[in-house]
């Protein structure tokens, strides 16, 4: 936990937050929430209603869920590409081993002549 609470203003309300995160991180996150809140309530004047904060929280949770799904999809694609590369490397090593064995066999046959 941080030593002292950090005062963050979001939607005209000040919140005192105590967490292990740095003040800089808290302010950056609060700015993200504030920006989304302004987007959501750009047509209204004054302090946004508490329901607007709930909608922002839901929108941010949706974004997080979308990013997690995207990350999982990308991780799967990366695993597939890595497996293809490993198969190609294994194939190349196998071909090299076969070629070296053939050369060694040819060399030993030449020595016998």
Describe this structure in words.
Helices cover 72% and strands 9% of the residues. With 113 residues, it is mainly alpha-helical. The protein has two domains: 1-48, Double Stranded RNA Binding Domain; 50-113. A two-stranded antiparallel sheet has the order 1-2. Helix 1 (23-40) crosses helix 2. The mean pLDDT is 89.
Structure summary:
The protein has helices at residues 23-40, 50-112, and strands at residues 6-10, 13-17.
Order of helices and strands: EEHH
Poorly predicted regions: none
Give a count of the beta strands, DSSP E runs of length 2 or more: 2
Q: Termini, distance in Å?
A: 82 Å
Mean pLDDT: 89
Compute the number of helices.
Answer: 2
Task: Tell me what portion of residues adopts beta-strand conformation.
Answer: 5-15%
- Helical residue percent band: over 70%
| Rounded Rg | 30 Å
- Secondary-structure-based class equals mainly alpha
**Main sheet specs:** 2 strands, antiparallel
Shape: rod-shaped
Count of spatially separate domains: 2
Query: Reading side by side through the largest sheet, how are the strands ordered?
Result: 1-2
Structure keywords:
rod-shaped; 9% strand; 113 residues; two-stranded antiparallel sheet; mainly alpha; Double Stranded RNA Binding Domain; 2 domains; 72% helix; single chain
């Amino acid at each position: 936990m941080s030593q002292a609470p950090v005062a963050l203003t979001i939607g005209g309300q000040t919140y005192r937050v105590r967490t292990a995160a740095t003040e800089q991180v808290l302010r950056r996150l609060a700015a993200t929430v504030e920006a989304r809140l302004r987007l959501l309530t750009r047509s209204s004047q004054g302090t946004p209603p508490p329901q607007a904060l709930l909608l922002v929280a839901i929108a941010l949770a949706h974004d997080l869920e979308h990013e997690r799904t995207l990350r999982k999809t990308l991780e799967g694609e990366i695993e597939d590409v890595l497996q293809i590369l490993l198969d190609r490397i294994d194939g190349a090593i196998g071909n090299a081993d076969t070629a070296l064995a053939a050369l060694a066999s040819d060399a030993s046959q030449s020595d016998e002549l």
